[in-house]
Here is the input.
Amino acid sequence: MSGNLIIKNAAQLVTCSGFKAKQGKEMSDLKIIDHGAVVIEAGLIKAVGKTDDVLAGIDEIDAREKGFDIIDAAGKAVLPGFVDSHTHLVFGGHREEEFSWRLRGDSYMDILKRGGGILNTVRATRAADDEELFEAGIQRLDSMMSFGVTTVEGKSGYGLDHDTEIKQLEVMQELDRRHPMDVVRTFLGAHAVPDAYKGREDVFIDYVIEQVMPDVVEDNLAEFCDIFCEKNVFSVDQSRRFLLKARAMGLKIKIHADEIEPLGGAELAAELGAVSADHLLQASDHGIAAIAKAGVVATLLPGTAFCLKAPYARGRYMIDADCAVALATDLNPGSCYSESIPLVFALATLYMNMSIEEAITALTLNGAAALDRADVIGSLDKGKLGDVIILGYPSYKFIPYHVGVSCVEKVIKKGKLVFSK
Ligand code: NIG
Ligand code: FE
Here is the structure.
């Protein structure tokens, strides 16, 4: 396939039309076209509308000769590809033992304090070679793509030393080159305090700023910088210092904010004008108002709250407070070993009281905005990438209704069919 594709007769074309994040009430408007069609040429969307209108000037035989494939989507709903804007997809080893300890009552932070948790994965990732990480990464991307994800973000943060942080980012760069999905890279060099720096967090931050970050920037290995701003990890002051340096070096900012304790990460994200503040389980009313006002995307990760048996982030409250909410999986080997989009939909709609329409906006246009790409992906609009999913059902409402099961029948990336059931 050439990246030239016509999708016609869609029962519902859920365009999610827009070029910037949707806030509050705007999130409910999916801009649906019944009996819709999309034309994609050389990977980019060229036309969107009613099938009769879009195909009026197109002779199908002629189009096929010009290399267009044609998919008849009669009886199917068609949406933009999902954007999973927060994952930790490249890591060595697994932590199934820790999961069983948590079932017995150990807390996530206690396991980290004992040198397990993130530090356990750091040891395994340091020991893994590039090929191992790459192969595991390909398998995870294939699985994500089968759920309809066409763009994914991936973070480093399991190296916490120069070479391993660079190794993780280089593996993601290679994954981006060799897998159909787009992989957006985030430098999370301040994800935990390595054993050798216990009690010397500021010294570790200096090390990352001085010894690692310049090479990440120079080799163009990341677009975003992130930090785990959390009690007993990095304080708000340390996070501010770290992120200001990152920004000065040209990286855009994300924050793991208010995940376990209400530390003020949301307020910091607003103060710094971060692109997104992520987790926010414990975000204060004041912090939520601040990110709504500052236009920081609130990226919620309900799979993590579910796995940690923690209270969900207040998605309903945030949307009512006019936030732009995105949803993502947080796929990682510890707090949420799941790339399941159906799980995220189920939790967001049934337990965070988001409407189906809001959840779709959160996984498409607002996910794109969380990656500073709302102008190029996240909706079916002319000029955007031809990233499209076709469901096996006539309505988007089947997505949470067919609970825990993927409704995605076909995935199209830049006009090419990359997954079909
Ligand atoms: O987003 N909270 C920090 N980082 C990840 C978990 C990483 C891990 O446990 O390996 C998160 O939940
Ligand atoms: Fe995370």
